[in-house]
Amino acid sequence: MRVAEPLTRLLPRVARRELQSPLSVMAARVLTQCLRSLSRPSLRLCSGSPAVRAAVGPAAALHRPVSFAASSRRTRWLGQSPVSSVGVLCRQYGDLPPLTLETIKGRVMYVLKLYDKINPERLVTSSHFMKDLGLDSLDQVEIIMAMEDEFGFEIPDAEAEKLMTPEEIVQYIADKKDVYE
Fold first, then answer.
1. Which of 14, 67, 82, 134 could pair with 63 as two cysteines, CB 3.0-4.6 Å apart?
2. What is residue 148's predicted lDDT score, i.e. its pLDDT?
3. Which residues of the chain are in CATH 1.10.1200.10 domains?
C-alpha cells in the first residue's frame, strides 16, 4: 500500500483485507460516519451571506468524490459524495452586541423577575434583597448563581456577599466587563 494513495482507493482496500474483527468493523463504521459528515453541505454555509455563497460557488469544481465502504469481509459502496474544502473551512461566527449599562440593568432585572420568591411589582433597582424583598442568604446565593449563568463568569464568594441590591449587581458586572458610559 502506498502512502500517497488517495483515501478513495485506500479505504476499500483496507476494508477488504484488514477488517476481520468486530472492533475493526466498528472503526470502519465510525470512519464512514466521519467522512459522511464532512461531505454534507453546511446549513450555515448555504444560508450565509451572499458573499460567502458567491465564494463557494466557483469551488464546486474543486469537489472530489469520496467513496465510503463498510463491511466485515466484502466491500459495499454506499455512494459517492462531494467533499468541499471551502465548506469545511468556512464558518460564520457571531458575537453579542456590546454591553451597556442599560442592557446589563435590563438583563439583571429580567433574571430577578423570573425568580419565584421575588414579587416583580415590588422590585426596583434599589431594592435590598433582605430588607425590602424578604429574602434570606440562601436566596441571595441562588440569585448570584443565576447572574453568573446569565453573564457567563464566576463571582467570587467574598464579592457575592456584598451584592445586596440589583443596582450593586449591575455596577459589579459593568466593572467586570469594562462597561462605562
1. 82
2. 97
3. 101-174
